[in-house]
Design brief:
globular; Ribosomal Protein S5, domain 2; about 40% helix; alpha+beta; 2 domains; 4-stranded antiparallel β-sheet; 7-stranded mixed β-sheet; Alpha-Beta Plaits; binds (3R)-3-hydroxy-3-methyl-5-(phosphonooxy)pentanoic acid; 9 helices
Length: about 300
Amino acid sequence: MALTVAHAPGKVILFGEHAVVYGRPAVAVPVLDVQATAVVEDALPGSGITIVAKNLLHTFNLFDAPRNDPLRTIVSATLSRLGVGMKADLKITVSSAIPVARGLGSGAAVSTAIARALGEHLGQWLTSRAVSDLVFETEKIHHGTPSGIDNTVVAFEKPVYFVKDKVMDVLWVGEPFQVVIGDTGVVSQTWVAVGDVRAAFEQDRERYEEIFDEIGTLAHMGRRAVEAGDVGAMGRLMDANQKLLQLIGVSSPELEGLIEAARQGGALGAKLSGAGRGGNMIAAVTPETASQVSMMLRLAGAQNVILTEVR
Ligand code: PMV
């Protein structure tokens, strides 16, 4: 029986999380070292659509899942985009090496892999833009009011400069550079952090608009640094971005501990990445400092450390 496999990477946000929800620019890059995988197979006639979620140790029929189940949503949205009825007989197996709820885009990656595998299996090529739009539907379930940056960077698999509903530029990286990613091990739901920032914003709009403007300026400068391959400038901008993320209340003692350890290990700069409160931090490093920074992060209690190259 025919079988199709597709993958999708994780992601980190280099600059601009949270402010991106309020229309400011952000820069995000794919993390190709961790991937989600979807396998689509023809199933026996009349068996319907079965989803095997390997990480969750859960197998279910598509229509037995709640309507707002993210896996049901991406499968239904993709099949209807492909013009294929829900009467198809398919087995869809998903697995992911991307830790869940740590700001690495695991939900977007799983959905992207499914959309791609379904498109290829059913003989239709879906553009990255089409996949990104489909995945955005599931991001609404995961995130509440997503900016759209996760689905964009994961579906395009390229560094992107992103302004919600306005700009999506794929970035040309002047010189490949390395980033170390350290996991606090603390689960953080994006919609909780985004909701708290929203509540604080409603209390003091003027101050928050100013902070978001400053973050937006850093993201704009970050874009230039990425294009120039200037990792030193990226580090300085990460430090400045982290100060502003602290001000809006999305850092945490665990994140601060890892950020400090990275700096002590010789990182050129460091910040949290994604929603914050837990999840991952990132540090700008050189090939000379990468292993020392990784070691310091482990010693400081990082649950997982990834060294990734951005190109
Ligand atoms: O999914 P995360 O944790 O990487 O967070 C996404 C980034 C936010 O700016 C906090 C939310 C959004 O929708 O852009």
